[in-house]
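Figure-free illustration: sequence to structure, shown twice.
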Amino acid sequence: MRVSGGILIRASCLASLMLTGACLDISEEDLGRDSHQADPTGQPVESSSEPLLTTPLGEYAQGPGGHLIHRSCLHEVPNGASFDDKDQVTASGLRIKDIPPCSYPEGATAARAVSPAVNGWVVASIATPVNGWNYSQITEIAGTWTVPAKPARSGAVIFMFNALQDNTSTVIMQPVLQYGNNGRFGGNKWVLASWYGGPMFEGNYFHSSPIDVSPGEVIEGLVHVTVTGNIDCDASGVCDGWTIRGTVNGDTSRRSTIFATSSQPMSMAVAGALELYNVTNCNQLPSGSGGVTTFSDVRVYQPWGNPGNPSNWDRFQRTTFNGDCATTSAPCWNRAVWSQAPNCSFGVSVAASSARLTY
């Protein structure tokens, strides 16, 4: 099974995670990580199963979650636009675009990246509903973090985000803070955009129009079931509408929002994650080596009652976390750290409503 962004957990660790909610200090070995041979999500693959690219890598863009996406399959949609699994984009109530299926395979991130370098997820705080939770479905995650200082040295692509994901890792919804040029947008500045896409959209990926942000500004990342009158979710947790939003300094005029459908229930919460590409020196990290980013006021919600009763989808209840799975019982947060070179003191500590990422 993959955990957020396609990371692979071996069976022994997965069993512990699903039964107890704890798979502590998940390591590179536990997650099957191989930074030299990876599919677009960072999962190890046999060489015969990796897509053969006949298109120059310069035509690809690096997306969060390890996705190397052909630029014709990566679509910027207006702030507040919606899209569905028929690849129809709607804005202000009007259908503005029909997206054809993507004609290009996803590329292997390792093929594009500088080697040796840090490439992929490096630290994260992750929770999966197991014994001790109310139900297996998650309807919302929210949290805030501060835009770090710019790195002392450019050249890397940096993603920071919170997210919801399904249990098959085919769907991840994420408002993303980005530094560096991903091949489609960005540069030596911080930008905020909301992302979603993948197989259910025939290989297409979507992001909202990027918003420039500055060090010291506060980002609120929010992913939740869209509430427009009656909430349309079935007993399994499949909901017709989702909102993916990043807001700067609580200013509603500085929001990066997309609305989308999903054919999968959300059953994994990411309180905070750091994902890096082409980092060859620790001074390419935010604030240089020894930096800290804390995701605060982390909130997770679930259905009010038994999801089999439609009326219980009309309102949600907050799940109270006990803290770190290393020291307490579920509901709790797992700490995931992936070994990388160069070693930039990557780490994560968690509490009931926060995740502190160090680098």
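We now fold a second protein in the same way, so the two outputs can be compared directly.
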Amino acid sequence: MDRPGILTELERLGVPFVLHRHEPTHSEEERRSLPFDPERRVKTLAFEFASGLALVALREQDRLDYAKLAAALGVARASLRPAPHARIGVEPGGLAPIPRDGADCLFDERAARLGGPVFVGGGEPSATLEVDVDALLALPGTRIADLARLRAEP
């Protein structure tokens, strides 16, 4: 989904958002330098499989458990592949958890519990959207699942 497509879709759905412009970021380190609360950042990953496309939203600090994702989608783990950027229409780091074009969005339960505003990709490396997580969770095609890999306690 291109940047204008993200904004158009949110406007069409009546979801309020704030678009923040900044210097382009291309790495995790550059994204950490942005002035957004790291505890409120949500990353979006895209996966394709035999019967479709899925977007996955996780807190920025969490890692995806691929077996949990496969189970949530009802597919074999081996069938999951990262979706090419050309298929999803955004540059790396710009994807937002907004279902579109038949893609469902699975929100990890930890990201879903954040409540209030979160910061997500704005369609390009120089844009970040601020949007209420509950508004994202209410979008058609969005559901909550346990998707994050649990970290061992130190």
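Summary for the second example: The helical segments are 3-12, 28-32, 66-73, 85-88, 109-112, 133-137.
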